[in-house]
Specification:
Elements lengths: L1 H44 L5 H15 L2 H4 L6 E5 L4 E11 L10 E11 L4 E9 L9 H19 L6 E8 L3 E2 L10 E2 L3 E5 L7 E5 L8 E2 L21 E2 L15 E4 L2 H10 L8 H11 L17 E9 L17 H16 L3 E7 L4 H7 L6 E4 L5 H13 L3 E2 L1
Helix pairs in contact: 1-2, 4-5, 4-9, 6-7
């Protein structure tokens, strides 16, 4: 009995330490969560409050968020506000009162945590690469796509706090993309594509003509392989230039034109409203011209270098069908594995350039191709009803524009 009595005290101490350290671990998790919430709150209010007001609000927020037994042992956090770097760093300490462990002299267990956030938004460049093919006319898909795009644009507009902080490009695509014909004298365009037409009555005859600046309606086809899976990068040789081409039933001149990066919300809205479903599918050319709008080199030069501090580049790629035709392969109606192969390479190059890619499959299309094209499987969306498009676009827009915690 005497030996048991002597052993009981340290035994209870060991048990007490285990129990109290478990409580301390839970308290630290609560402190982590409270700091993360306070950091986001501080980032949201940093431009409206003075440093003193912000510090007071952070401490009040932390105290209200902590468990009762920790709250009583928490005094204040150290809040460091850097208005040049636009960061708020919070370091907090608290003591968890010991219970059973008191028998071995431990009165409190110290816990600490830290967190940091940036206020405002990262500078954002976003390319909307949108399928404008004929199949988008069914099941209300084009109507839903327009509304979803307008919702996204509105979210981005509302989130903007500085001029040109968020810029968006719109790249409608079919088998080709359509440019403004004012670009006809650009050095990165070439003029060697031909079109052959044959009479449908006897005696049959065919005529071949070459595209010219005077006859060009704005259509551009795939660049030569393997340049067809990378952005324009200056186009210093004929092989690297973008071929001006004839428009046709697979990509008619009525297709909406590419709108380069802009924060002109009226222009963005107008371009979305101009979209109409027509033509066949070549995801590769849409993705690559989306990348071109995000690149500072020709054919568009409005994007900032990827190395620009606090700059994030994104692409949302949406399609409702299989690849059916590019410059070399496909018949415009059946799925083409050859065109899929070009899309796979394009997606790899886009992600390697630091662009975060979201992909959306609307009812039909190659799910594996699109899932693999996304930067992460969680960034691939499967849409089974057109009505799902707007909530998905809103979710992506919120994710892109939200204030992010930093380590």
């Amino acid at each position: 009995m005497m030996i048991f009595g002597l052993a009981l005290v340290p035994l209870m101490g060991v048990v007490g330490v285990a129990v109290d350290y478990s409580r301390a671990s839970n308290a630290r998790q609560a402190l982590n969560a409270a700091i993360d919430s306070a950091a986001l709150m501080a980032a949201r209010d940093a431009q409206k409050l003075t440093d003193a007001q912000l510090t007071a609000r952070v401490n009040a927020w932390l105290k209200d968020s902590l468990p009762a037994d920790v709250k009583s042992e928490f005094s204040t956090a150290t809040v460091t506000i850097d208005r040049t770097a636009r960061t708020v760093k919070i370091v907090a300490n608290a003591n968890v009162p010991a219970t059973v462990a008191r028998v071995i002299g431990t009165q409190q267990i110290a816990v600490s945590s830290s967190g940091q956030s940036t206020w405002g938004l990262n500078t954002i460049e976003l390319a909307l690469v949108l399928d404008n093919t004929g199949s988008m006319s069914s099941s209300g898909k084009m109507t839903a796509l327009k509304q979803a795009s307008l919702d996204l644009i509105q979210i981005m507009k509302d989130a903007t706090q500085e001029t040109d902080q968020i810029r968006i490009s719109i790249v409608p695509f079919s088998t080709r993309v359509l440019l403004d014909t004012s670009l006809k004298n650009s050095s990165w365009l070439r003029w060697d594509q031909t079109q052959t037409t044959c009479s449908n009555y006897w005696p049959y005859s065919c005529t071949t003509k070459t595209i010219t600046k005077n006859t060009w309606q704005g259509c551009v086809t795939d660049r030569d392989k393997s340049y067809d899976v990378s952005d324009g990068d200056g186009a210093s040789t004929n092989a690297t230039m973008s071929p001006a081409d004839f428009c046709d039933t697979y990509s008619p001149s009525s297709q909406a034109k590419i709108l380069p990066l802009t924060s002109d919300w009226t222009a963005l809205t107008s371009r979305v409203n101009a979209m109409q479903p027509t033509g066949a599918t070549n995801i590769t050319i849409g993705a690559i011209w989306g990348m071109a709008t995000l690149s500072p080199s020709d054919p568009f030069t409005g994007a900032k270098p990827a190395s620009t501090p606090r700059l994030k580049k994104y692409m949302i790629l949406l399609t409702d069908g299989d690849n059916t035709k590019n410059r070399w392969d496909g018949n415009g109606s059946s799925s083409s594995s050859a065109v899929d192969g070009r899309t796979t390479l394009a997606c790899t190059n886009i992600k390697s350039a630091g662009v975060t890619v979201y992909t959306i499959r609307v009812m039909d299309g190659n799910a594996t191709l699109l899932r693999n094209c996304a930067s992460d499987p969680s960034m691939y969306y499967e849409v089974t009803s057109a009505s799902q498009l707007s909530p998905i676009f809103k979710a992506i827009a919120s994710e892109i524009s939200q204030v992010r915690l930093t380590q």
